[in-house]
Design goal:
Layout: E1 6-10, H1 16-26, E2 31-35, H2 39-45, H3 59-66, E3 71-74, H4 77-83, E4 86-89, H5 109-121, E5 124-130, H6 138-149, E6 154-160, H7 170-175, E7 180-184, H8 188-201, E8 210-214, H9 215-246, H10 250-258, H11 279-292, H12 296-323, E9 332-336, H13 351-361, E10 365-369, H14 375-383, H15 393-399, E11 400-402, H16 406-410, E12 415-418, H17 430-436, E13 442-445, H18 454-460, E14 463-466, H19 483-494
Parallel strand pairs: 1-2, 1-4, 2-3, 4-5, 5-6, 7-8, 9-10, 9-12, 10-11, 12-13, 13-14
This protein binds nicotinamide-adenine-dinucleotide and uridine-5'-diphosphate-xylopyranose (UDX).
Uridine-5'-diphosphate-xylopyranose binds at residues 163-167, 226, 229, 233, 267-269, 271, 274-276, 278-279, 340-341.
Length: 497
Amino acid sequence: MVEVRRICCIGAGYVGGPTCSVIAQMCPEVTVTVVDVNEDRIRAWNSDSLPIFEVSPGLQEVVDSCRGVNLFFSTDMDEAIKNADLVFISVNTPTKTFGIGKGRAADLKHIEACARRIADVSIGCKIVVEKSTVPVRAAESIRRIFNANTKSSFNFQVLSNPEFLAEGTAITDLKNPDRVLIGGDETPEGQHAIEALRSIYEHWVPKSKIITTNTWSSELSKLAANAFLAQRISSINSISALCEVTGADVEEVAHAIGTDQRIGSCFLKASVGFGGSCFQKDVLNLVYLCEVLNLPEVARYWQQVIEINDYQRKRFSSRIISCLFNTVTDKKIALLGFAFKKNTGDTRESSSIYISRYLLEEGACLHIYDPKVKAQQIMHDLTQPTPSERHDPATVSRLVTIVTDPYKACENAHAIVICTEWDMFTELDYEKIYKAMLKPAFIFDGRRILDSLHDQLQHIGFQVETIGKRVNQRIHFTAIEDKSEIDQQQPLKKIKL
Ligand code: NAD
Ligand code: UDX
């Protein structure tokens, strides 16, 4: 069995950075070097201001405990690859934005670049591990690149070892994972490589939690896990639409069904829709895979998870417009929360971006506050072109103001829209906020974080509107003029309450 003494991780992002920091802390005899092409990122990893924000137990503490001892961040990729016994590939695999599979397939150009680089500089024995989330059989492509490009002195094994951490809880997830999954070749060499990687995780993960499979099961399990989690959110969000017109409360429904052990209570929180860099990308990746493998029924099944998510975002936005007397043009709206969930500064695919865009299309003046997202990032997210549309930076800068004080965001606003479930939003002085707002003053709780305050907020004078519940016992009509939207909402209009 290869003894792993030196690890190189290519990609110092949300996965590579925290994962390798924990490996370094847990395996003091192993030297871990994390490399990246992005010099700014590496500089930040080497500073006291890490490039990603993770709450307690702090990433900074983990990094501080081993950086410069057995954990290094560097841009010298070739040197780190050359010296390593095991190389993690932990680069981004975003959805393709052009060409075949645009908008659905995973873009594997960074994976391929890594494979070619490893092939170029490697000699001796190496275990190469896919840490990135990839389509099934991606390991095959890596092997082919190695076979076609390497010198005879390079002996390699390719493993799949997908990462299941969630942002905001990365360190806890890494230190106490539900499972570690390792997939490899069924040959004796493949099994030796699996054992070598297993021995790293066994420093802190109980044997019973380390699952080994063939390479393809491991690759597919990652896509399937994210698809199942996303599907639960879309399922409960679809029920939230029903709750809003029937008088049922989605929190009560989620609790009632979640107590059934066969269903379980996690990932049943109705919301403005799931965001983050993984769910949409990985479900679309699965859909594309099914399409190219001629499984159209399976593809359509998973595509619906994405469609319900889009629907939820549009539905919430149209509810805001409809409550504000069918127009938000020139109205000040305070949008609280821009990260895709609390305890992270990451905004990738955040529902806040979509909701902001819908409201901006209607001419709303948005005053956006987030405790962890920088103004520059918000403006970038709102102005960057999407595959289907271009967002005019001039209009966005005229209509959007980024503030550093939530009270300022709410001053003279018609409505507060809560998009991220930051704890601090439950602790604001809502009496003070109400006094400074235009009347009627609305709160749209897209995260169900103000449930326990609803009576109090209504007593203050707020009109409270919340996902999956009719707080004000009124029926809402859609304000979006698009025909397809109206068709989707039509059955709701027929219900008499
Ligand atoms: P990220 O964008 O934060 O980081 C990727 C890093 O790779 C970037 O810093 C980039 O500069 C670097 N990179 C790209 N190409 C490179 C190259 N050729 N050489 C050197 N560096 C290169 O991405 P992430 O969020 O860390 O995700 C990485 C992978 O892990 C993705 O496949 C993702 O789907 C998967 N994943 C992410 C999460 C998550 O919570 N973010 C969780 C599980 C799995
Ligand atoms: C997810 C997976 O959980 C993780 O295992 C995988 O490795 C990467 O993708 P992440 O995207 O970091 O992690 O966050 P997660 O906690 O899963 O939340 C994703 C989105 O779903 C967020 O926008 C969150 O607010 C939303 N969500 C989550 C809900 O709307 N309701 C829920 O019940 C749970």
